[in-house]
Design a protein that fits this description.
This protein is α+β, with helices and mostly antiparallel strands. It contains three helices and eight strands. The chain has a domain of 106 residues: Immunoglobulins (Immunoglobulin-like).
Length: 183
């Protein structure tokens, strides 16, 4: 009696399943073509509604954020179209206080970019702390916002830069290696 390994039996089972499935699928193409479909109008391209302004928060003084020491954040608003007057608002967790600047601002009409800065102080070194900035258009009620993670944002951006740099080097090395083989 021949010996069969469990591995060979498993592969034979999988092969037979694929065979049975392929036989079951034969002829379905004709059935689909023969069936009657209700004709629909051609699909139309739709685009997600977006607020015409993008926001970004950066650490203005490029210092390390530490508890009980002031730090300055800068919000940059960018747009390609002229804006109407907007309302901006800092949203702070309980353990962060505003030292300089205003929690809410009336932002005048602007083209291209507009910048707002404020100085804060935190009483905690909780790595989950984040400050948010919200921009709304009072006439429509629509808006956008962004957040800044106090103790991880700089390290995350630095890691992203390093990953991007490594990936560019890997692509370059891969291209050199495989282009030589092709030529």
């Amino acid at each position: 009696m021949p010996k069969f390994s469990l591995k060979k039996i498993f592969y034979a089972f999988i092969a037979s399943c694929f065979f049975v499935l392929s036989i079951g699928c034969l002829g379905t193409e004709k059935k689909i073509k023969k069936s009657s479909y209700k004709q629909h109008s051609p699909l139309k391209y739709t685009k997600k509604l977006e607020f015409p302004i993008s926001t970004r928060i950066d650490l203005a003084d490029k210092t390390q954020i530490e508890p009980q020491k002031p730090f300055t954040l800068s919000v940059t608003l960018s747009t390609n179209a002229p804006t109407s007057s907007l309302k901006g608002e800092w949203i702070l967790p309980p353990n962060i206080k505003l030292l300089q600047g205003s929690l809410s601002q009336n932002i005048p009409s602007f083209k291209n970019t507009y910048q707002i800065t404020a100085t804060f102080e935190t009483s905690s070194s909780d790595p989950q702390q984040k400050i948010m900035y919200k921009v709304t258009d009072p006439s429509t009620g629509s808006g956008t916002g962004t957040s800044y993670h106090l103790f991880s944002e700089n390290s995350l951006r630095q890691e992203k830069r390093q990953i991007y740099k490594r990936s560019q080097e890997n692509i370059k090395n891969f291209s050199k290696k495989h282009l030589k083989k092709v030529q």
